[in-house]
User: Fold this.
Amino acid sequence: MLKKVLLAAVAMSVVAGSAMAQDVKVLRIGLDGSENEADQIRNTQCVADGLKAATGVPEVQIFPSPDYNGVIQGLLGGTIDIASMGASSYAAIAIKDPKAVDPILTYTQSDGSSGYYSIMVARKDSGIKTLADLKGKKLGFADPDSTSGYLVPNVALPKEIGSSVKEYFSETGFGGGHENLVLAVLDKKFDAGTTFGSGVGKWEEGYTGGNLHQMVNKGILDMDDIVEVWKSPLIPNGPLMVNNKLPAEMRAKVEAYFMDLPKKDHDCFKSYTQGDNKDYIKVDPSFYQTIVDARKSVIGG
Assistant:
């Protein structure tokens, strides 16, 4: 009798879970504005189409934001369901509400590594080659919620320059995303700026992945026009985050879709992860604890 009751309870919970998953009428993917909106939407459309087919959800919508914070607030408020962002953005969410999202996956580079680098670049014709050459000059950051474009440089640079960023440089500012930041350096609005790349592969190709690689592929950057002034320690690749307001069964379907994506549609996977990347691997909050701690110490939230 007890066995029958238990089996009935399990069956009812499965049915309830399926009903909750079926109640999800739309999935919303957030885009953080790290490159221009049209390109981000185009690179994500294949994911939207694939998710719709894999989950059975009637509609998958793409929500571009002009900055990182728009997506952070959307994930915190439950108006964004899925987003791939840097570790500092996840840290901002985890500090405010540890239960809002789960980091479920991250990607690996072409060499299998699961990290990337903050890369500081300057115009080649500026004569700037080292951090010493930048003393008293203007430094640009990508976005205040960017891991490679703000957080990591503010943690790592003081150890190398022997003073705070504020004291060492005459001025700092933000470029409004990684792509715009590099364009601002080329336009001489900053003497140097911090962006990101895989650090793997050929310099002339902007490495195998990251913002520089994307810009080279789009024909808006010639790597011969810039030099690498500084490269950070390895940063853990940013997470694919899923909102915990989604039913557990739907979150499982979303995770299964992304895990299979590199095998089923590698071109789509490369577009979405911005480079010649290899695979998705599972992660959890512990993978990003060092970034959470760093954000608490530098930004406070």
Summary: The first strand starts at residue 26 and ends at 31. Residues 2-19 have pLDDT under 50 and may be disordered.
